[in-house]
Amino acid sequence: MGKLLFLNACFTDDSRTKVLADAVLKKWDGEIEEVILNDGSIKALTKEQLDKRMQLQESGDFSDDMFKYAKQFVDADVVVIAAPYWDMSFPAALKNYIEQMNVSGITFDMNGEGVITTKCKADRMVYITTAGTNNADFTYGMDYMKSLARDFFGIKKFNTFKAEGLDVEGADVDAIISETLAKIEKFSFVTKTVNEGEEDYIVESKELTKMYGNYAANNKVSLHVRKGSIYGLIGRNGAGKSTFMRLLLGMTPINEGEISVFGKTGNEMAKVRNRIGFIIENPTFYNYMSAYQNLKYRADLIGLKNPDAAIKEALQKVGLLDKMKNKVKGFSLGQKQLLGIANAILGNPELLVLDEPTNGLDPIKIVEIRNMLLDMNANGTTILISSHILGEMGKLCSCYGFILDGKLIREVTEEEVESEALDVEEFFVEMAKGGQDA
Predict the structure, then answer these.
(1) What is the rounded CA–CA span in Å between residue 234 and residue 393?
(2) Beta bridge partners of residue 232, listed in sequence order
(3) Which of 70, 95, 71 is nearest to 9 (CA)?
(4) Inter-CA distances, 215 with 205, 218, 255, 275, Å
(5) Cα three-residue angle 113-115-121, rounded to 5 degrees
(6) Is 18 helix (H, G, I), strand (E, B) or coil?
(7) pLDDT of the residue at 306
């Protein structure tokens, strides 16, 4: 299975966090290399050490022991971090480790424009904690970890197992630990591969065609969204992206061809639509109702068992919980867009269909929504998304479909894009040129 790097910040081997960590590590059947973070052995990088490191780097000599942490990180296929309480010793220990580990020429390259290209091959980071009651500190810690993993090292899959609230007076410690262990029991490091000839598509279309008069908005589109993927549908304005999503959701009738969702086609698709969350173009709401009331309306439609908890969770994820009782008529464009996203993720659907979901959002919110979607995907949600911000798509998607003038030009994986030494934007430009020349 490869190599797992275990960053251990547990205080004792029988601590609650270590119990959870051991359950995660049992899922790995390859090599495990452990680094103890909080015993004081990993010191902060001194100026003298830094000067020495820079001299050795410039000479191309990486044989010194001071580079060992960088080498450990680069060689890892998966990184697992176990740390009780974000607000105690772990941040300083992690900072020391990162200082020792981040080495240009080993863990990453930086070009003259400040763009970092990671050399790390890890594709997943798992964070395990028994968080206390200080939610602000925990949220800060999570944001820091995700930023480190995703923005710096390009690790998209980020799983969290937290037994939160153990220190609350009257808490049932055994029940909380058991509940977290049950979640770990369902976890796997292995990404399911589909056997040859076996279909594992949540969405599949065959020769799908939609006509408006003599114009084919979708022209024989055969598209495949595999379970567990984040599929980026890329094309110019008017290329047919929104049309495909409307056909998928039954918002407009099909002229020719077929589309299936969760294996259902035709009228049978109506039976599985409560498993789909979506936002198509600009979301609309009842302006005289509050944000909560608008989401309650949809929660009742899809039959959520605990609508109050689901609504508050969705609003919290998009940063609108404090606006819960506000009427939508007073919302800004960006807030309405966030409410549309909250509406789509309500109840944690199995499939998300998102048409330009970050329209009207500021750069900080775009990053927050990206991380939220990556979290949902890591926990089993399949996502079909379109966006004009191709740089964001490159940070989010695991596969792509390029559509031009209603025709699906090509479907590719993230690895295929990278193999041609192009980013998503460059790849799309090449696809568009090819489509025009055809």
Answers:
(1) 9
(2) 385, 400
(3) 95
(4) 19, 9, 12, 32
(5) 155
(6) helix
(7) 87
Residue 382 phi/psi, 5-degree rounding, is -90, 140
CA distances from 187 to 126, 162, 177, 251, 254 (A): 11, 13, 15, 36, 39
Tokens of 89: 């010793």
DSSP β-bridge partners for residue 175: none
Q: What is the overall mean pLDDT for the chain?
A: 85
Residue 117's DSSP bridge partners are: 109
> Three-class SS string for 274-294?
HHEEEECCCCCCCCCCEHHHH
What is the Cβ-side half-sphere exposure of residue 407, based on CA atoms within 13 angstroms? 9
Does the pLDDT of residue 198 top 90, yes or no?
no
Q: Are 167 and 133 in contact (CB under 8 A)?
A: yes
Strand-pairing partners, residue 205, are: 259
Asked whether the beta carbons of 243 and 251 are under 8 A apart, the reply is: no
Interstrand relation of 276-279 and 399-404 (parallel, antiparallel or unpaired): unpaired
Antiparallel, parallel or unpaired: β 78-82 and 3-8: parallel
Residue 92 CB partners (closer than 8 Å, separation 6+): none
Instruction: Compute the C-alpha angle 423/427/428, nearest 5°.
Output: 120
> Lowest mean pLDDT: which of 184-198, 254-268, 406-420?
184-198
How far is 386 from 370, CA to CA, in rounded Å? 13
Per-residue model confidence as pLDDT tens digits over 130-156:
866 556 666 667 777 777 787 778 787
Query: Could you tell me how far CA 220 lies from the centroid of its own chain?
Result: 31
Pairwise CA distance, residues 234 & 243, whole Å: 13
Query: Which residue in the block uniquely carries the two structure tokens 């709401």?
Result: 285
Question: Taking a C-beta distance cutoff of 8 angstroms, is the pair 199, 39 a contact?
Answer: no
Tens of pLDDT along 426-437?
A: 777 776 665 544
